[in-house]
Specification:
The protein is of the alpha/beta class and 186 residues long. It has five helices and seven strands; from the N terminus they run H-E-H-E-H-E-H-E-H-E-E-E. The relative contact order is 0.18.
Length: 186
C-alpha cells in the first residue's frame, strides 16, 4: 500500500499483520478520488478540504487526503492493534501537523459531538460485520458535521445491505472487487 498522489506520492504505508483489519486498497482509493475529482455530481473538493476519517485503521484514506492538500484530517480509531500503525504512518510524514487522532468509539455520539468542524468529506470504513451504520449516520446529521456541499463516503462489502436513515440519499455507488463504495448526502 502507498500514497497515490500529491506531496507524499509513492510513500509506502505500514500495514497490519492483524487479519481483522481491512486497509483500503490502492485501486479502490484511487477510484474514489477519480470520482471525487471528475464527477459532476460533486462539488466538494474545494481548496484545502476538511476531512473526517472514521474507522480510519492505518489511515490510508486520510493520509491520501493530507498528501493531496487537505486543510485538516481528523482520524477516529479505537482498535488498539492498528492505532500504533496509524500513528507511525502519520509520523513518517514528518512535515505535517494538520491532523489529529481521536482514540474513542466512533458510534458514541459524544465522540463526534465534540468535533469543532464541519467537514467536506466524511469517510466511513467500519468493519464489514458492523450492521449499525444508521446510528453513526444519524449522529453525523444530528451534530451537523457535514458542510452544505459535503459528501459521506461509505466503504462496505459488496454484498452488504445496510439500512440508511430515510433522509439520506445515495448519490453514487460503485463496486471494486469485494468492496462497495457508496456516496451519500442528507
Amino acid at each position: 500500500m502507498r500514497i497515490i498522489s500529491g506531496e507524499f506520492k509513492g510513500k509506502k504505508l505500514l500495514e497490519p499483520k492483524d487479519l481483522n483489519t481491512r486497509p483500503l486498497k490502492d485501486l479502490t482509493k484511487e477510484s474514489i478520488f477519480n470520482i471525487l475529482n471528475h464527477s459532476n455530481k460533486f462539488k466538494i473538493l474545494t481548496n484545502r478540504p476538511i476531512i473526517l476519517d472514521i474507522f480510519s485503521g492505518i489511515g490510508s484514506f486520510g493520509l491520501e487526503c493530507l498528501s493531496r492538500g487537505a486543510d485538516r484530517v481528523i482520524f477516529i480509531e479505537n482498535y488498539k492493534q492498528v492505532l500504533s500503525i496509524l500513528k507511525k504512518n502519520l509520523s513518517n510524514l514528518k512535515s505535517i501537523d494538520n491532523y489529529s487522532v481521536i482514540e474513542k468509539d466512533a458510534y458514541d455520539r459524544k465522540t463526534i459531538g465534540k468535533l469543532n468542524y464541519r467537514f467536506d468529506v466524511i469517510f466511513l470504513d467500519p468493519p464489514y460485520k458492523d450492521k449499525n451504520i444508521d446510528t453513526i449516520l444519524k449522529n453525523i446529521e444530528t451534530e451537523k458535521l457535514l458542510n452544505e456541499n459535503g459528501i459521506i463516503i461509505l466503504h462496505r462489502h459488496k454484498n452488504s445491505n445496510d439500512m440508511f436513515p430515510s433522509n439520506f440519499k445515495i448519490i453514487e455507488e460503485k463496486t471494486y472487487g469485494i468492496s462497495k463504495i457508496i456516496f451519500l448526502k442528507y
